[in-house]
Amino acid sequence: MSPIIIAGGLLVVAVLFVVGTYNSLIMLKTRIQEALSGIDVQLKRRADLIPNLVETVKGYAKHEKEVFENVTKARAAMMGAGSMKEKVEADTVLSGALKSLFAVAEAYPQLQANTNFQDLQRQLGDTEDKVAYSRQFYNSNVLDFNTKIQMFPTNLLAGTFNFKMFEFFQATEEEKKKIEVKF
C-alpha cells in the first residue's frame, strides 16, 4: 500500500473519532440540560401549588401572618433563582417555610380534615417525590458526562473544545440533618 493511502485512512479514522467523541459529549451535555429543566419543571409545579396551600391554611389560621409571609417570600425567591447554587439555596428556604406552614396546620384539626387541604398536601408530596427523582436523573447524567470528559483520550478533545465539568445537585446541610420523631 502506498503511504498516501495509509495516511488518508489514518486521517479518516482520526476525523471520525473526533466527530464521534464530540457528538457524544454534546449528547451528554444536552441530557444534563434536559435533566436540569426537569428539576425546574418540578420546582415550578411545587411553587404553583403553594399559593393554594397558603390560602387554604389562611382561612383557618388568620393570626399566623409571619408564616404566610415567609412562605410567599421563599416562593418568590425560588421562582427568581437563576443559577444552580441559587436554586439549591432557594429550595432549602422554601422547604423550611413549608415545614413551618405544615406545623401551623397541625394545630387546626378542622383544616386537617379539609379535603382541599388533604389534596394539596398529597399533590405537594407527589411533587417532592418528582423533585427527588429529577435531581437523581440530573446527577446520573452529570456523572456520565464528567466521567467521560476525564477519561483518556476523550479528555484531550474535551479540553480542546472547552467542555467543563458540571456540578452535582447536592443536599443542603438542612436536608442532611437527622430527623427526630417524637411521640
From TrEMBL:
Where would you find the membrane-spanning parts of this chain? 6-28
InterPro entries documented for this protein = LemA-like_dom_sf, MamQ_LemA
A Pfam family it matches: LemA
Compartments annotated for it: namely:
Membrane
Task: Check the record and name the Gene3D superfamilies matching this protein.
Answer: LemA-like domain (1.20.1440.20)
Tell me its family: Belongs to the LemA family.
Name of the protein in its database record = LemA family protein
Q: Which organism is it from?
A: Candidatus Roizmanbacteria bacterium CG22_combo_CG10-13_8_21_14_all_33_16
